[in-house]
Amino acid sequence: MNTAGWRRAAAVTVTAGMAIGVVGCASDSSGGSSEGSADTVSVWVTAGTDQVLASSEERWNAQSDVMPIAIETFENDPYKTKLRTAISAGEGPTVFSGWGGGGLATYVDAGEVASLQAAFDAAPELRDRIFPSVLAGGQVDGEIYGTPFNGVQPVVIYYNEDVFDAAGVEVPSTWAETMDAVAALQEQGITPFSIGGASRWPYLMWIAYLTDRIGGPEVFDAVVAGEPDAWEDPAIIEAAGMIQELVEAGGFGEGFSSVDANQGAPEALVYTGKAAMQLQGAWAYSGTYFTAAPEFTEDGLGWTTFPTVAGGVGDPTDVTGNLSSFFSVTADASEDQQEAATDWLLNGVFDDEYIDELISTGAVPPISGIEDKIEASDAPDWNSFIYEISQEAGNFQLSWDQALGAEEAEALLTNLEKVFLLSITPEEFATNMNAAAS
């Protein structure tokens, strides 16, 4: 369907969906309770895709037949509180960015975001361009409430090729090989894995991948669903035990709990040859490796997927990380604003120019059929790797702290840190998390 055709369909399908979405929600008599003018689509977003969105805003607003959009960018840390306060007061924007998962579900449960399902159903050729595993991150109970707008960011293993060559060690693809590599690297005085323990959140990647490899995605799905005693699943306990075995084997070296992940220190250990590997998100490639050590990144940095675990039932193509950031539409906005916002989300975001500009920043859009654009990018090998593992993922698990509600996520960070510091047992971790969940 062309853009004009989609807009005609949207006038019916979106409006019908919005009428359902606003039942029981406060709205002022002007039909424009979102912050800003009633004839403007206000958009709140965290920093990160600023220039791409600014260009999209300029192109979209240059058209004579659209309601203009006005994008406002916020720093990440204060954003969640500001957004929560504004939406609760009926003063939120028309469109806001989020990370899907538990945060989005909270807004959906409160009736504060509008469903995008009817709009996507009316334009299946647009819906089907998005990687299914990524689009799932914007769904709640199988219904679409968020659509992605930036690059996909799976967590991968980075490694120093020269370190492995000098040590005569093969890059591991199984957990048994990983533990063997840890022992061999330790003997040569090399820290096997760098990790920013002081920031705590890098710990999440280990428990997420190991749990998936052992028990499959259903294990954490049960946690997210709030099923009784879900944290005491044997796969989670075994995963925590394997983490502690890795710690005890010297897998992270000494002092890993004082390393700050937010200052590029873990990456520096890899590109200076002091550490062999790092488990980290795709954001580390352009955000740290390429900017801090471009020569090493071009000739010396390798990457691979997380190892398999013998006897595990998880699909080895499964990945974890940040699927993308998602845009959602507030239910308190007027029907005209919601229709205009949805028009932009489906036709302005991820059009050809948007995709080209996003790729130029080093990001990999979660959009099928753009292999030629990926191959023509400045980092084709890296971008193709990220594109392929994201597109082919049997399951793309959103980072656990984003998938859970805020309180349970904080309890997870606290207790997982204790697992890494060997101050609680895997069983105590599971018990503590069950208590936090209930």
TrEMBL record:
Signal peptide, first to last residue: none
Gene3D superfamilies linked to this entry: Periplasmic binding protein-like II
The record's annotation in PROSITE patterns points to: PROKAR_LIPOPROTEIN (PS51257)
A Pfam match: SBP_bac_1
Q: Which domain of life is it from?
A: Bacteria
Which SUPFAM superfamilies does the record cross-reference, listed alphabetically?
Periplasmic binding protein-like II
Alphabetical list of InterPro entries matching this protein? Bact_solute-bd_prot1 (IPR050490), SBP (IPR006059)
Q: What is this protein called?
A: Extracellular solute-binding protein
What organism is listed for this UniProt entry? Microbacterium aquimaris
